[in-house]
């Protein structure tokens, strides 16, 4: 372990770089609270999306890295700002009129449009926790509603009253003049309607811990800031939460980065040390637009898990967190195959290389063996050529390629076969577009089909790939990429495909010859 820790202290993997920054906070003495606190925040105004998962996955990777380089205990909190008023109705939920009638009410008092939970906030919190539990994250969940109403936030709220002028000064510098005229860090919750009010505050009484305001009808109210009667605006809430909990690390998207000085300033004004931050780039949909909970663009966690195992999503999250990434259906096969490539590489790596391998961070050092005998991309092409409707039909080809394999001994292979059939039928099959070959391509494919019928060599990827190369060269393809593209477009109905030698070995030599015949006859 000491050798591994020593390697971790110099590792350039980004989770270790972040972990070392956190460790520097406690160079002189350990935290008084007894642990280092990691936090992720979640706004449950809509159904959770993959970006939310990404925050927890990446924070967990940093937490694991920290636990390797330090003996200080750690804790991860997932904090839901479910006391926030619902400002708009999400487009991707039922009962829109019901939600419209409850605008500006705290999310935990808005009826659940799915009619499954106590409120819309409770529903979305349950969705989030189910998603996180699917991935085995170790975390403590905190609801803002419980945090405010139980009194756990009272001490900080009273300090906000005492430091009101200082906190307002921090906020007003960031606001336009018109907004500044009516702004307050406090949002009272109307004692009768239950709505979160965005109204000017007439008086702040530090001695009694109360605020006074007029509601939208001009009626004056005085409320204590404690006990869930008042909530903080979201920017002050960010910094106040850090101060209340003693947060040491939180990451958030690039769209928050300009607010970092505000969050830090609020936290420090309340007498606490600001945490370390990590700003990640945003996830984009297929058109390059930022994914959004309210719009429902981009992929959900359930959608990814319909087509691939959870580890592939964790792998996607590990890669280049400071680079904007397109998050759409076509990234799934690549993520699956690269994840298994890293698993296979891990076996022969030294300690330094292992700590730089994404799979160490995905599995916290307890890295499994890959039993994936065939790349996912190859399975998609097999499903295409075989017209597979279920994974059982795929196993007939897989067992011929790897006779000792079985669903029992290769469960990840078995799961991948099922995912591949599903992905093929939903995304590949509808977009397939076969074309007729040119005269040059037809002659080459006829030659290849005949050579395959006459073939008596080893049914191995490289030997068959060499055969395909030789045919392309002999038929005058100056750029062999054009030859392989022709095979894909004529036989598989797509412009890209697998190493064709590997495909032949998997699909079968005589079966590939017959596939070529059907392609040349226009029967595909």
From TrEMBL:
The entry's localization annotation reads:
Cytoplasm
Its top-level enzyme class, in one word, is: ligase
**GO BP, sorted A to Z:** lysyl-tRNA aminoacylation
Which Pfam family, giving just one, matches this sequence?
A: tRNA-synt_1f
Which keywords label this protein?
A: Aminoacyl-tRNA synthetase, ATP-binding, Cytoplasm, Ligase, Nucleotide-binding, Protein biosynthesis
> What EC number(s) are associated with this protein in UniProt?
6.1.1.6
Reactions catalysed, as given in the entry: tRNA(Lys) + L-lysine + ATP = L-lysyl-tRNA(Lys) + AMP + diphosphate
What Gene Ontology cellular-component terms does the record carry?
A: cytoplasm
Motif 'KMSKS' region, residue numbers:
290-294
PROSITE patterns, A to Z: AA_TRNA_LIGASE_I (PS00178)
> SUPFAM superfamilies of this UniProt entry?
An anticodon-binding domain of class I aminoacyl-tRNA synthetases, Nucleotidylyl transferase
Positions binding ATP in this chain are 293
Annotated family:
Belongs to the class-I aminoacyl-tRNA synthetase family.
Q: What is the official name of this protein in its record?
A: Lysine--tRNA ligase
Species assigned in the record? Salipiger aestuarii
